[in-house]
UniProtKB/TrEMBL annotation:
Keywords: Cytoplasm, Methyltransferase, rRNA processing, S-adenosyl-L-methionine, Transferase. It is an enzyme of class 2 (transferase). The gene is rsmG. Coiled coil: none annotated. Specifically methylates the N7 position of guanine in position 527 of 16S rRNA. S-adenosyl-L-methionine binds at G80, L85, V131, E132, R145. It is found in: Cytoplasm. This is Ribosomal RNA small subunit methyltransferase G. It comes from the Bacteria. InterPro entries: rRNA_ssu_MeTfrase_G, SAM-dependent_MTases_sf.
Amino acid sequence: MTLDVPLQQGLTALGLALPESAQAQLLAYLTLLKKWNATYNLTSIREESAMLTQHLFDSLSILPHLEKSALATRRWADVGSGAGLPGIPLAIACPQLQMTLIDSVDKKTAFQRQVKIELELSNLTVMGGRVENHPAARCDAVISRAFAELADFVSLAGHLLVEGGTLYAMKGQMPQDEISRLPVGWHVTQCLPLQVPGMAAERHLIVLQKDH
């Protein structure tokens, strides 16, 4: 099954106009993910058409909500990135970003490095090890997708941010309980409902910053 048309339809629904080269890279990423998944079990989703919706469109659904200033020549990190989600789709869609993927599982970082090589993603960096052990104050923004509870996300990854930086947590239903358990010194600036083409489940983007 060719995914060129479903990809274009999903991007249109998201209001994203990506060049053909980026669309080809997104589909090549899915092909690699399906190939590696057969051996390394990187994701429970097996079919490319389902990966398109639940991985690619889900990852890209945050872009319509971000200001251009959040994307322009910024240093981002994707923590607990697993198969490179959402970091790899974001790096493809936004080549101006410098995206660092951080994951502690060797097979996952091996896959990420192979994607970087095969898709020639010069704006992608792959780092192994636990996120809490990485150097502080390196990133303008840090994003996670199904990584941890908000309080844990803040405590494990908050140190990666430069002053005034932003944490982005991709969640399902609105995590009111998690928000209530945020540690002192952090606050939610936005709770944005995400519309993912082809997905009926609730999705939200929680935006967090340190108190001034």
